[in-house]
Design brief:
This protein is of the alpha/beta class. It contains twelve helices and nine strands. Helix 5 runs parallel beside helix 6 and helix 8 runs parallel beside helix 9.
């Protein structure tokens, strides 16, 4: 009897299913977190320094200083200013681009190269970077007095349709009318660029029509062409389009462009050019600033501009800041100044003295 009971107990013990549910242990996988800004910036600095060592160039002191500041403050660096090394030693834009690719640093938004020679290979590397979707958020490019070649400008211009560039500065590069024609082709239909600066770029009369066409086929609202040779005819071609089409241009800086009666291409003369400008001033509701300084326009042309500002007051349009040469009749100059909009932030506010 005890043996039979033992067999039954054994069978129940062994064969009985285990009704207790085992707890499933889920493996906790912590999501991958991006390293803090200071770590990413430090990696970029190290990569930049190592890249420079393999080339016959030097570390840009401004970039090195900005990166170290970002490490110290635990902040991302978005603005990169490439300047010459100690005693104007050569620096390379390609080295910076290579470092950005090496550590996949995508926080860059502004690129500045001031008075630093830029080679065609530098521009090729920069263009390839800008064409990569990860780096298409660069908003500002300034290449001032860099010796930009026609090839380099053409290669860089091909990146504009795929990027989100808002401001392009090419001052003191001898791009000429041919370079302006290349910019027109690449910027036609562009809805991103808002500010174009081509000061002292050897532009002549034909560029007036090119610039006018560019304004009609893009969304540029700030245009700087100071220090060129558009003269009367080129200026009239540019502004005639502005006066006949509804173009929302907010600022036009066209100082020192030979708008006088001395140049060979001034068939219209400053007076006829001023009449075209007056027609534009009378109808535009967008313009806030027009700089015509360092152009010897004379008293008759200056009076036309003065009448244009008066027409704006009569039409109820907002005032604008019109800057002209002081080498005109003093009364006309003062009247223009009184009708024109005063510059914002032109003078420093005096601190109020505390009461004793």
């Amino acid at each position: 009897m005890n043996v039979e009971f033992g067999k039954q107990w054994y069978q129940r013990r062994v064969r009985a299913p285990n009704t207790k549910k085992k707890k499933k242990t889920k493996s906790k996988i912590s999501p991958a977190l991006d390293p803090p800004p200071c770590i990413q910036v430090k990696s970029l600095l190290k990569a930049y320094q190592n890249t420079v060592l393999g080339h016959s160039t030097f570390v840009s002191p401004t970039i090195e200083e900005d990166l170290k500041h970002g490490i110290e403050k635990n902040q991302f660096v978005s603005k990169f200013v490439l300047s010459g090394g100690p005693q104007s030693k050569p620096v390379s834009l390609s080295c910076l681009v290579t470092a950005l690719r090496t550590v996949c640093y995508m926080k860059i938004r502004e690129i500045y190269c001031w008075r630093t020679p830029i080679s065609d290979s530098d521009i090729i590397d920069l263009a390839l970077l800008l064409e990569t979707p990860c780096w298409k958020n660069v908003l500002t490019i300034e290449l001032i007095d860099t010796g930009l070649s026609d090839f380099a400008l053409g290669r860089l211009s091909r990146t504009f349709p795929v990027g989100r560039l808002k401001k392009l500065v090419l001052d003191y590069n001898k791009i000429g009318d041919e370079g302006m024609a290349n910019l027109l082709v690449c910027l036609t239909g562009n809805t991103e660029l808002k500010h174009l600066s081509v000061n002292y770029c050897n532009l002549t009369i034909p560029s007036g029509a090119l610039l006018a066409e560019l304004l009609t086929k893009s969304t540029i609202i700030h245009l700087e062409v100071t220090g060129n040779e558009l003269q009367c005819d080129g200026t009239a071609q540019l502004i005639d389009v502005l006066g006949t089409q509804d173009i929302p241009l907010k600022s036009l800086l066209i100082a020192d462009n030979g708008i006088d009666s001395h140049g060979k291409g001034n068939q219209r003369g400053p007076f006829m050019t001023a009449k075209v400008i007056r027609r534009w001033l009378t109808c535009t509701q967008y313009l806030e600033l027009c700089d015509l300084r360092d152009n010897d326009i004379g008293d008759l042309a200056a009076r036309e501009l003065m009448d244009g500002l008066t027409d704006r007051v009569t039409a109820g349009l907002k005032n604008l800041q019109l800057l002209v040469t002081c080498r005109i009749d003093a009364t006309i100059y003062k009247t223009i100044q009184s009708l024109a909009k005063k510059s914002k932030g032109g003078g420093k506010k005096k601190k109020k003295r505390k009461k004793k």
